[in-house]
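Let's practice the habit of predicting before peeking. Look at the sequence and jot down your guess about where helices and strands might fall. Then scroll down.
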Amino acid sequence: MADSTVAATLRSGSWRAITGYQWLVFAVVWLGWTLDAADFGLFSLVLQPALRNLLGFASTGVLPPEQMAQIGKYGGLLIMTGLLGWAAGGFIFGILADYIGRVRALMFSIGLYRPRRWGRHSARKSRAS
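Done guessing? Here is the structure:
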């Protein structure tokens, strides 16, 4: 977007000054961010039932305060780890993208992610047998 377009938009104060292409780019970026954040929202929804199961607590009913404290402790640690991973990945791959380009950095990150998915898939298959 040219600087003159930005300046004209800011001076006019009107949404009509934004081109259709600019709206399209905004929609694509917003949708990408929303879908990226959706997995963390879903994680928050399933966190307590999953930790109840993993910690061996009752799956239904009200838990005693000490068990709820354990769920809060481990849930907080899991969420913190996820947020720190996002921050570290953004920092590391941002620097990498400055050197090798964004497309190559993205391909590299996908290359790191895929073997873990294959490993989980094969682990599920071996448990089912």
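How did you do? The radius of gyration is 22 Å.
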